[in-house]
Amino acid sequence: MAIDSQCNHLNKVLDIVIPVYNDNPYLAETLTSIFKQQSPDGWRFHVYIIDDGSEVPVNLDIPKENTSAVSLLRLKKNSGCSVARNKGAYAGYGEAILFLDADCSLAKENVLALLLEEYVKGYDVCFGQIYAPQDDFWAKYQNEVAAERAARFRSGELSSMTTQIVMVEAAIFKKVGGFDERYHFGFEDRDLFLSLINIGANVSLVEKAVVNHNDQLSLSSVVKKLYGAGKSASTRFIEKHPGEYSRLPYAKADVRYSRKLWVSVKLVPVAFLRFLVSFTDCLINRKVLTYIILKWCVKYVSGLAYLLGTKEAR
User: Hey, what CATH class is 12-213 in?
Assistant: First the structure.
């Protein structure tokens, strides 16, 4: 049964929360993939699009038969993904909440059904998996990262996944206060998962529940996020989860955890980082080096960006 406005007799509701900032060319594809979903008996869905203070308000082009299944909420100013996701989560009334990124379309028509099947088994948090369908360097890189996250999850690191696709029981989400709104971007997902796990949430990974990550990445966009996470979000995460942070790879690229790093990073200007980003992006686009070498370059530049961000941490 697809999502439609004729499901009022059903008694279980899944709220789908999608934050958006400025124009997202993939949002229409994401919504179309939701409208095609098969819903298990007894369930209906409602989608909450949260316009996070976009410079030009987000406009939706939705088929008439689906308009009643979608609400568009606008924030007056850009407040970050934590605030936006909370706004959508608390606006709904569903038994469960699915957090989904605007550039992540559901790969098959049974993705939500797979997650709900796991949820009704007694799992409070159900992660899906992401897949980058593009045939390029960044697709391969993202897919390797996704596989590594899943491997860490299976080995016991239950907070290793992301909010690109995750279903959470509404009651337990609200019990921990939702996303910590002091995070603008970075670490807010891991912080939430740790908070849920710490109060006893049952967590599951449904690897067949796949979303296609349709965004076209660049090293400049990746570096911008990592620099920002090191500069601001990391401080809040360390305050709340010092032991967890010290075990993460991020701590190895944090000047607060190494005097040698602090001394060496003082000699590295941000202008040098910009040069490395531009140069590496050029190498990736021209495909002049092997994937292994480019991957090493990306990891080095990304780590340096996070390191420089921690130097400015407050």
Answer: alpha beta
